[in-house]
Design a protein that fits this description.
- By secondary structure, this protein is of the alpha/beta class.
- It folds into two domains: 3-114 and 359-363, 2-Layer Sandwich (Enolase-like, domain 1), CATH 3.30.390; 119-353, Alpha-Beta Barrel (TIM Barrel).
- It is built from twelve helices and twelve strands.
- A seven-stranded parallel β-sheet has the order 5-6-7-8-9-10-11, covered by helices on one side. It has a three-stranded antiparallel β-sheet with strand order 1-2-3.
- Helix 1 (54-61) packs across helix 3 and helix 5 runs parallel beside helix 6.
Length: 388
């Protein structure tokens, strides 16, 4: 099970239509696909979530040649500085790179031993993973997009008709508050009493968030992700509003102390791989803080978070996904199916997915043509972002 080589390739996974959120718009997700090949010829798959990290992965991989893929502690010690900060390197970037490589090491181990990842993690407590159905204003693309509240409500109704979607989550903080209140009103009418969650990506100031939540409360919002940017601001909102809050920022001690947010929503790379994510989720359970996975991975990292969700009871409720928005993927048979509000956990060895070589090349060529995280619309990703 020793590492023979590590390769990496940046890819763009396109959306069927560029979606809008508080930072701007985005037409494709840029990821780095990693392959760890063992001396026995087994290929493990991993993924870096934060754009083109191919050169960093390949440079890091040189330090792991000859190492047993099960020796995660040694691998982490070689790639990640043993401190939270160092002036001689970027600890966050190193942790993310290791997280992608470590994912591939787990996959190679599972394939070598002939068992799925969830068994390596201790076994499954669930085989169907609940996921949200996303909605947003979207610019025209392969799909016509949605430009009005009525368009978005029709889209949600279509997802119920075609896929029996059960939990809806939508972007706010992109249009005027009056228009977004109308959007939520129409979505609520379209989805009935199904759970409705909203996500402002921290785009509102505290005064705007107070007004927004006051006007949106009548529509029974079950979760609100980042109506404001900081934990402290969310704790201030908690004094006046009963809905649950979630955030992407990771500070478990502060979340426990403030009793807000109710859940941390993040990906595997941010914690430095599958083992570290497992440990973080167990810590969340001990501190009484929820955990969910966020959207925006290829089928490789999506498979990893499905396995973790299957193996860890504390990953309750619906994590996020954009599966129905994807126009391509790098795995055979991808993107994953989302029907009746759930996706099945893969049961083949390792992550349970197989790389589609033609799709990988197609997605890499798209990256070369588009660059990282293209907006798909004039103005671009993050263009002119300011809190409202």
């Amino acid at each position: 099970m020793k590492v023979r080589s590590i390769t990496a390739l940046p890819v763009n996974i396109p959306f069927r239509a560029p979606y809008r959120f508080s930072y701007g718009s985005i037409a494709s997700l840029t990821k780095t696909v990693i392959e760890v090949t063992t001396e026995d010829g087994v290929v493990g798959l991993g993924e870096c979530a934060d754009g083109n990290r191919a050169a960093d992965v390949i440079a890091a991989g040189e330090k792991l040649i000859g190492l047993d893929v099960r020796d995660l502690a040694t691998a982490e010690g070689r790639l990640v500085p043993a401190m939270r900060y160092t002036p001689w390197g970027n600890v966050t970037a190193a942790r993310r790179v290791f997280g992608g490589v470590e994912m591939a090491m787990w996959d190679a181990r599972g394939k070598t031993e002939g068992v799925p990842l969830y068994l390596l993690l201790g076994g499954a407590v669930r085989s169907e993973i609940p996921l949200t159905e996303y909605f947003s204003y979207r610019f025209p693309g392969a799909d016509p997009g949605e430009a009005t509240p009525a368009d978005i409500a029709r889209y949600c109704a279509t997802m119920i008709e075609q896929h029996a979607s059960t939990v809806f989550e939508g972007k706010v903080g992109t249009m005027s508050l009056t228009e977004e209140v109308q959007m939520v009103r129409e979505v609520r009418a379209a989805i009935g009493d199904r759970p409705l969650q909203l996500d402002a990506n921290g785009g509102w100031t505290l005064p705007t968030a107070r007004e927004a939540l006051t006007r949106l409360a009548p529509f029974n919002i079950s979760w609100f992700e980042e109506p404001v940017e900081t934990y402290e601001e969310m704790a201030e909102l908690r004094l006046h509003f009963p809905m649950s809050f979630s955030a992407h920022a990771i500070d478990l001690p502060k979340a426990a102390a403030l009793r807000c947010p109710d859940a941390i929503v993040t990906n595997i790379n941010e914690h430095g791989g599958i083992a570290r994510t497992r440990d973080f989720i167990r810590s969340c359970e001990a501190f009484g803080v929820g955990f969910r996975f966020h959207s925006g991975e290829t089928g490789i990292a999506s498979a990893a978070y499905l396995h973790l969700s299957a193996a860890l009871e504390h990953v309750r409720g619906a994590s996020q996904t954009l599966f129905h928005w994807y126009a391509d993927d790098v795995i055979e048979g991808g993107p994953f199916a989302l029907e009746n509000g759930v996706t099945q956990v893969p049961t083949a060895p390792g992550l349970g997915v197989t790389l589609d070589r033609k799709a990988l090349q197609r997605c890499h060529d798209r990256f070369l043509a588009e660059g990282s995280f293209p907006s798909g619309h004039e103005g671009g990703y993050g263009s002119g972002f300011r809190k409202r």
